[in-house]
Amino acid sequence: MNLNKSIDELRKPATQAVSLITLFIILFSSLTLLFGLEYENVTFYLKIVTIIELIIIGVSLLQYIRFINFKDENLVNKKILKNYARFLTVVNIVGTYNVVFAFSNVFYFVALQNDIDLYKYWLLNFVTMLVCFLLFTLGGVFFILNINF
């Protein structure tokens, strides 16, 4: 089996397309800055989460570039191969979940535009989504490993 083709399976453009949709959602939420919301009134937690979302978008768009090329299968360092495959898998999972977090933040930007701070609700929403996504991912790992409890 060709290693480069196997790595290309992990680098499929689906995550890049989802990241572009996420970028569009973040740009859509920034429309509130044009229609009444002052940048100084944007809360710290929304600024930080938006920056983290933009970093995730950048990393998932950068995975389209092949950083490591495995030319000779006999001379391949297995540790580098496993770490690279693990990195691509994590980026794919996080990039896919990122769109849901960005979409839910639109509601909180609109609430801030109307001078309503919903920090407690945002925190509950964020933690709930994080726990659900982590459990869903863990369930998928158990399903793949075929562990019976």
TrEMBL record:
Pfam families in UniProt: DUF5079 (PF16882)
* Segments forming a coiled coil: none
Regions crossing the membrane: 20-37, 43-65, 86-110, 122-145
Q: Please indicate which superkingdom the organism of origin belongs to.
A: Bacteria
Tell me the keywords, alphabetical order. Answer: Membrane, Transmembrane, Transmembrane helix
Query: What InterPro entries is this protein classified in?
Result: DUF5079 (IPR031690)
The protein depicted here goes by the name DUF5079 domain-containing protein
Organism this protein belongs to: Staphylococcus edaphicus
